[in-house]
From TrEMBL:
InterPro entries: Adenyl_kin_sub, Adenylat/UMP-CMP_kin, Adenylat_kinase_CS, Adenylate_kinase_lid-dom, P-loop_NTPase. Residues 158-193 form the Adenylate kinase active site lid domain. The keyword Kinase applies. Monomer. It comes from Lupinus angustifolius. Gene3D superfamilies: P-loop containing nucleotide triphosphate hydrolases. It comes from the Eukaryota. It holds the Pfam family ADK_lid. GO terms for molecular function: AMP kinase activity; ATP binding. Belongs to the adenylate kinase family. This is adenylate kinase. SUPFAM superfamilies: P-loop containing nucleoside triphosphate hydrolases. Catalyzes the reversible transfer of the terminal phosphate group between ATP and AMP. Plays an important role in cellular energy homeostasis and in adenine nucleotide metabolism. Its EC number is 2.7.4.3.
């Protein structure tokens, strides 16, 4: 069953006006189709909502899109569900098909940010072929470059208070008393993904799979290498400079 659109009479005037103003502001923005590439902890998650709002783009995280397609029982979602239930990887063609459907939505009219895809050169080629059929192409690939040693310090220093979600960092935002939450005094935990061993295997996978993707786009002269080890505001300024040129 298709999702029904909300009745505009039921939408508040303030919400309608805000959306109209947003669309008016967006109409003067240039179209942008971007790929964000970077290892875990490189700051993509901090920058992508800022880029999305500034340029009126839609944010396409392939994992979320796959789950949404499965939940909506779209033809591609049904195929993806079958693959997952059989313990198989969802094929590149299926993922590209889901991206193809997503970029045609009104929210992606000014372009998109792709995050988490493509992870391999084959995926990059399939993505380019699909976009070519639509008469568009990737404008920029933002490479969040950070030294592995800096990432290890960033990630393995993260601790959190499980019930409230408050997060700390042993170096950058330490708790008042090591290992305990400032508010409750309860012990802090480290997420399973934030250990040195897990990070090491994730970084190895990233370098092996994704660095060839950066080289693939570098040959097209569309890669911008960001100094992602800098503080977020400085990285934002770099992004702005790259995207306004």
């Amino acid at each position: 069953m298709a999702a029904t659109s909300p009745n505009l009479e039921d939408v508040t005037s303030l919400d309608l006006l805000s959306e109209l103003l947003r669309r008016f502001k967006c109409s003067s923005k240039p179209d942008k189709r971007l790929i964000l590439i970077g290892p875990p902890g490189s700051g993509k998650g901090t920058q992508s909502p800022l880029i999305k709002d500034e340029y009126c783009l839609c944010h396409l995280a392939t994992g979320d899109m796959l789950r949404a397609a499965v939940a909506a029982k779209t033809p591609l979602g049904i195929k993806a569900k079958e693959a997952m239930e059989n313990g198989e990887l969802v094929s590149d063609d299926l993922v590209v098909g889901i991206i193809d459907e997503a970029v045609k939505k009104p929210s992606c009219q000014k372009g998109f940010i792709l995050d988490g895809f493509p992870r391999t050169v084959v995926q990059a080629q399939k993505l380019d072929e699909m976009l070519q059929k639509q008469g568009v192409k990737i404008d920029k690939v933002l490479n969040f470059a950070v030294d592995d040693a800096i990432l290890e310090e960033r990630i393995t220093g993260r601790w959190m208070h499980p019930s409230s979600g408050r997060s700390y960092h042993t170096k950058f935002a330490p708790p008042k008393v090591p290992g305990t939450d400032d508010v409750t005094g309860e012990p802090l935990i480290q997420r399973k993904d934030d250990t040195a061993a897990v990070l090491k295997s994730r970084l190895e996978a990233f370098h092996k799979q994704t660095e060839p993707v950066i080289n693939y786009y570098a040959k097209k002269n569309i890669v911008a290498n960001l100094h992602a080890e800098k503080p977020p505001k400085e990285v934002s300024a770099e992004v702005e400079k790259v995207l306004s040129s």
